[in-house]
Every structure is written in C-alpha cells, then in structure tokens.
Amino acid sequence: SIIIPKRGTEGFLSVVGHVEGRLDLYNSGPHEVDPGDRFFADISVMASTLIYENELVIRKRVSENWRMHFVEYFEFWNDYLQKNSTQAFVFCDKKVDANLIVIAFRGTQIFEADDFITDLDFSLYEYPQMGKVHFGFLEALGLANRSNDKTSSYHLEKQDHDKPLAYHVLVKKLKHLVQVHKYAKLIVTGHSLGGALAVLFSAMLVVHEEEILVGRLMAIYTFGQPRVGDTAFAEFMNKKLNDPVPRYFRIVYSNDIVPRIPFDDDIFMYKHFGVCLYYNSLYFQQNLGETPNRNFSLKFFIPIRIIALWELLQSLVLHYRKGKEFKETKVSIICRIFGILVPGVLAHSPVNYINAVRLGPSRLNPTLNMGD
C-alpha cells in the first residue's frame, strides 16, 4: 500500500526536497576560516536548500548527515500579511566552542501565495542612512507594515511585540550565541527570497550598529537572489560590507530569472551591488560587474531555450562524467522538460546552484580583475 507522509514529519519533503535529493556536505573535513573556501559556499547552499523543509527534517539532516549542532528553527510573524510567513534556522559547526554559526533564510515556496506577494511588490522604502529598499522584504523581517503609517520606526522600537519578528528575535539569538562561542564567525545565507532577506538582515545590523555581530560576520552567501535596493543602498553595502575585504558572495546561475528582477532601469530603480559570481550552463565561473542579460530581455528568447534544452540533456549524463552524487531525481528531470517553456524559472532550481558550487573553483574571490 502507498504510505503518504504526514506534513510536518521527518518523512514529508517539500517540492524542493523532491527536486534536490542530496543529503551530505561536499567535504566535511577540517577547514580554515576562509570565507572564499568552497566548503563555506557548499554549507551555505545546502543550508539555503534545506530551509525549505520542516523542522524535523532540518534537525535530522544537520545532526545526522552533517554532524553539526542544530540550534533552532524559527517561524516569524509578518505584520502586513498577519501570519507567520518567514522561516529561518540557525546551526553551529559544533555544540561547544563552535567556529561557525550559520543562519539560513527560506526562499520562495512554489505553492505559497504570500511569498509571491512579498516578491512581486516592487515598492521601495527609504532609510536615510542607507537608501531605498524593497518594502516587502522589510515586512518579511518584521521591520515594516505598509498599512501602519509609522512603518519601520515603529517596528524597530517595538521590540516587545507579542509576535515573533524576524530581525529582533534573530539579533537576540545571535548575540547569545557569539557570547557562548567566543571565536565563532557568522555566515548569513539564503536562496531566492531567502538571499534577499540575508542581505537586508545584514544591512540592518550595520544600520543599527550591532557592532559585535557585524564584527563576527564572515560572509553573506546568496544564491539566485533578487535585487534588494536602489543605487544608494548598493553604495552603502559596498562601503560597509565589501571594504576593505569583500564579505558578500552573490552567486548567479546561467539564465535564472530571479537575480534579474526587480528590473534595473529608470522605472524600478533597483541595483545589485558587489561582484556577480556568475556560472554558465557548463558550470564555468566568472567574476562580473553585473549579471549578463541583466533585465531578462526577450531578445534572448531563442538562445535561452536552446540553453534550457542543453541543460536537460546535460542533467541526464552529468553523473556519468562527475560522479553519482550528480545524478538528478526524476522530479528534477521532469521539471527540466517543462522548463524548456519557462527556462528562466527552472534555472532558479537549487540543483543548479549546488552543482555550480561543487563543480566550480575550489576558492571564490568576489573581486573584479582589471580586465573584467
């Protein structure tokens, strides 16, 4: 008989869990604390994928497969949506004297309408200190509510809110963890919407002068992250988080549509910042000033679909060339077939980002060469 797993149990997986089936880290041996080491990119992309699952699945994977210390899973209140719609989890590389603390934000779930409401609202809110940022992302962190004219100033001051607000709860948790683990470094990460929240959360730490946490922040790793703010915000982030040492790793795969929205034009006024660590469909990595085809122009309609067909064919044979861990699930292959019709969407799959990290260079350096 067919057993249907019950939602919220260890056996229940999200759509992402059925598309991307890898359980283990690429190389879990000892590593120096170097943000450019592929190990940290891998642990970030795996955490950014795992956060799509329920708490029991996450706890088991971190503890049993990764042999690390699960700290806590969170569901946060969105005051505008009037529901818990933001998820994150925190873990450490070990329970005692940890060297690494990781926080991963969940990205957009395919069948979650509230996530699309957050993503597709392109309105901006201006912070005098750092420029304009995406209103929906602020709301997801519990830092704004467009139906309340006091907006962010109200939410920032009201730390005793009767609902769990992402920014305040996580700051409190991380402050406790860095006190317990005196030498631990912090990574903030996420895929899709989760990447945007990782960026904005880190920015707010700077704005609110959380110097202890900013000082411990080793890296921000994002995968398929949409644009978060305007030119002023981009300049603020480059100055505060990429100078003198780059701490921001923005990874973009091929024709993924999400990093190309909201549009970078005179109407939407959004800008990326930092260096784009771009991987093409052969998983060849380049450091670029901006994502190719930055606004997903329709003039690339035919080439994008040809590449999507190539990606489908490659997915069928990649494990013969690179090893069994690169064998894709049947669900992933079916998605790639339908994805030829909407290739920019399927390029956003975490499968591509895990492959990119594992097949790309062993060390990432988010700086531009003179010729780039």
UniProtKB/TrEMBL annotation:
It comes from the Eukaryota. Pfam families: Lipase_3. Residues 102-264 form the Fungal lipase-type domain. SUPFAM superfamilies: alpha/beta-Hydrolases. GO terms for biological process: lipid metabolic process. InterPro entries: AB_hydrolase_fold, Fungal_lipase-type, OBL-like. PANTHER family: ALPHA/BETA-HYDROLASES SUPERFAMILY PROTEIN, TRIACYLGLYCEROL LIPASE OBL1. This is Fungal lipase-type domain-containing protein. It comes from Taxus chinensis.
